[in-house]
């Protein structure tokens, strides 16, 4: 396993629609392992393949925040939301590709998601709370959408300018 660099907004790859995973290969398994290691190291609770520059429909997440509980790393290949609740929930979201920027985003409070696991079997789960927010946020990444797209234009532009400045500073370092 190895850490992968996380792309910072604005990067055109973060705005592209990702292609479905055609076959679960050793490269896909390595990608998933690397992404989990990168996510935990960041630290974050979710990471989508385009955030590490791989334009494929794969995401990882683990929303267990209680250190008393065992971690629950999940790998979702070709995830699809099959149902979402009419009830809405608002969470303060952040993103590893938009460091140190947070905003309240309203999304469906509950979703059902279907995906392939690393062993090629189909799985489906009903997510609520932080898990529901996280899986929707990561699936958005697979569709080229960022959490700042839910914000008012002025706020979105301010955050984008801060990220451009951060990228310039990092390039000089």
User: Structural class of the secondary elements?
Assistant: alpha+beta
Shape: globular
Distance between the termini: 26 Å
CATH class descriptor: Alpha Beta
How many domains is the backbone divided into? Answer: 1
Contiguous helical run count: 3
Radius of gyration: 16 Å
Give the averaged pLDDT, no decimals: 96
What are the main properties of this structure?
173 residues, Peptide Deformylase, five-stranded antiparallel sheet, two-stranded antiparallel sheet, 29% helix
Task: Give a brief outline of the structure.
The protein is an alpha+beta fold and 173 residues long.
Task: Explain the layout of strands and helices.
Blueprint: H1 26-41, E1 46-48, E2 58-61, E3 74-84, E4 88-95, E5 98-108, E6 110-116, E7 122-128, H2 129-142, H3 153-172
Antiparallel strand pairs: 1-2, 2-3, 3-6, 4-5, 6-7
Task: Outline the structure in words.
This protein has 173 residues and is of the alpha+beta class. It contains three helices and seven strands, in the order H-E-E-E-E-E-E-E-H-H. It has one domain (12-172): Alpha-Beta Complex (Peptide Deformylase), CATH 3.90.45.10. The protein has a five-stranded antiparallel sheet with strand order 1-2-3-6-7. Strand 4 and strand 5 (98-108) form a beta hairpin.
């Amino acid at each position: 396993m190895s850490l992968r660099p996380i792309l910072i907004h604005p990067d055109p790859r973060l705005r592209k629609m990702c292609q479905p995973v055609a076959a679960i290969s050793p490269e896909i398994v390595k990608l998933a392992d690397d992404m989990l290691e990168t996510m935990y190291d960041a630290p974050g609770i979710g990471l989508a393949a385009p955030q590490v520059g791989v334009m494929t429909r794969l995401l990882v997440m683990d929303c267990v925040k209680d250190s008393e509980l065992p971690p629950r790393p999940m790998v979702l290949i070709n995830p699809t939301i099959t149902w979402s609740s009419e009830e809405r929930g608002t969470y303060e979201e952040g993103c590893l590709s938009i460091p140190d920027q947070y905003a309240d985003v309203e999304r469906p409070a509950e979703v059902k998601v279907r995906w392939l696991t690393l062993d090629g079997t189909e799985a489906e789960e009903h997510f609520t709370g932080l898990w529901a927010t996280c899986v929707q946020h990561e699936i958005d990444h697979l569709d080229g959408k960022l959490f700042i797209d839910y914000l008012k234009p002025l706020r979105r532009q301010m955050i984008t300018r801060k990220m451009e400045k951060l990228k310039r500073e990092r390039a000089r370092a």
